[in-house]
Amino acid sequence: MTNEFDLIARYFSRPAPAAYLGVGDDCALMPPAPGMELAASTDLLIEGRHFFSNAEPRALGHKALAVNLSDLAAMGARPVACLLGLSLPELRPDWLEAFADGYYALADAAGCPLVGGDTTRSPSCIVISVTVLGHVPVGQALRRDAAREGDDIWVSGTLGAADIALRLLAGELPPDPQLLAATRAALERPEPPLELGAALAGVAHAALDISDGLLQDLGHILKASACGAQLDYASLPVAEALAGLPQALQRQAVLGGGDVYQLCFTAAAARRDEILALARRCGSRVSRIGCITAGPGALQVLDEGGRPIAPLPAGFDHFN
Amino acid sequence: MTNEFDLIARYFSRPAPAAYLGVGDDCALMPPAPGMELAASTDLLIEGRHFFSNAEPRALGHKALAVNLSDLAAMGARPVACLLGLSLPELRPDWLEAFADGYYALADAAGCPLVGGDTTRSPSCIVISVTVLGHVPVGQALRRDAAREGDDIWVSGTLGAADIALRLLAGELPPDPQLLAATRAALERPEPPLELGAALAGVAHAALDISDGLLQDLGHILKASACGAQLDYASLPVAEALAGLPQALQRQAVLGGGDVYQLCFTAAAARRDEILALARRCGSRVSRIGCITAGPGALQVLDEGGRPIAPLPAGFDHFN
């Protein structure tokens, strides 16, 4: 019995590549990939929790996929396919079309075809579930437990803009249309560095995406790898839009702000030139921000004068 | 920053098999499988829509995975791994523990380790998202578009019990504790025929699971394969518990009732003995219920006297 919610599915049934079996059967099918490990990640995005109810649907479609692609990049994996679960309290064709457009535009750009999904009515809020699948050559994945003492610590992109946009939209900062205009894309249309991530497989050691904030996420590497870290604040790639803001707010946004969807990774010092060259090839900015130390769990951030910043932004002192 | 919802994740971080990288990194990793196509399916289950708010959490954990494993069985794929997204309005450790127990018990039995996931707070209802991954030998998947004129039509298991249980629980039928006791397990603890599904790969033609009801689901095969079907009602495996019910209710439950999570499949008549033998080996009951005909979209169900049942249960006449 075709019902209105089967109709939703029509927005998400563009054909998959010829080698795949896409939307419409019990499962999607993808061809074998000899020598490749399969990487998989899933995320739930809930209205009112992960995005505002009035979020622009095209940007939301983009971001729902982007945050998952970011997990593939952080593993050094290239995208293979994605699956989308979507539950909506009401049918709004204009909303659906814009969401699907944003989603497909990124899926096409990333080479990550939508091959399966599920659409249902939700009794209350919008629920988006995305699962991404990717390939990484056997043994080359960028795992959190692979950092080594003496490794350089790098980040891609810039830091802080998404956090400022979030604070502006949440009313935590006084309205500032110019600042919002300069930071909003970082929050709403993140562009995970997929080429860079794949190029780092087999070159870098540990990596993850900065979805929860630099210090918190770097803390995951330190814990999994049983080592410490020292960062130089002056070397951090602060987003330009933050230039005029008070120092404490800048530091909070740069060190603690999440939703970045760029990579933090570690690599042997001997590979510096190689990493700079491959980042250039991939069109990604990378910055060397510190080094991995022996002390398990110890995390220091030195200010411009070489003195440890203390206390670190709220909530991060427990890594010390 | 560890928060209460990170603690939820601890209920779902049992170790994955040694060849896998499980929960705890940006992605899960699984080893290559030469000669195998990758099958993937995802489902969203929303409180108040797919399950009652007072659903027993152990049974819910079981069912959330079972309905997805059923999609793998219907493709002829063997389970490889699963990912779980869980969003809850409140933290109830007893609920979580029972849900996780039910989920893991089936995951273990099915050889489908949980390798990744996402847990978050939901502003309102419980949301469960499950993605399953499986392998099927290249070219042997059981696709909906593979039925051929003259094929036998088979179903596994029995039909109708889940629908009766659902009607009892929803108050559509007068309370009948004995009938509920006899039908409830079919609704709440479905056991998808994984061994049978995998054994049918390369033997059967088309297959799907009967999640939406026999006629509706068979209709998907007929549409995808551009053919018709004739069923003999007398050959349908009606669940024993339905024996005393009025004929019209029985027919509605058997032909239209969903939530069955058994297979409907087609195969060449020459393979009857082989199919009966492999079903016996797999411990599955299979029944031959009709045949595929030429007429695209035509779907007839003959009664015990060989006359077409008309009208078919509400909502199914549009296949004719």
Q: In terms of per-residue confidence, which ranges of chain A show pLDDT below 50 for 5 or more consecutive residues?
A: none
Looking at the structure, the CATH topology of the largest domain in chain A is Phosphoribosyl-aminoimidazole Synthetase, Chain A, domain 2
Helix content of chain A: 25-40%
Question: Which architecture of the largest domain in chain A does the CATH hierarchy give at level 2?
Answer: Alpha-Beta Complex
Q: Could you give the distance between the termini of chain A?
A: 59 Å
Provide the CATH top-level class of the largest domain in chain A: Alpha Beta
Number of helices of chain A: 9
Q: Output mean pLDDT of chain A.
A: 91
Could you state the order of secondary-structure elements of chain A as H and E? HEEHEHEEEHHHEHEHEHEE
Catalytic activity (chains A, B): thiamine phosphate + ATP = thiamine diphosphate + ADP
Family (chains A, B): Belongs to the thiamine-monophosphate kinase family.
EC number (chains A, B): 2.7.4.16
GO molecular function, one term (chains A, B): thiamine-phosphate kinase activity
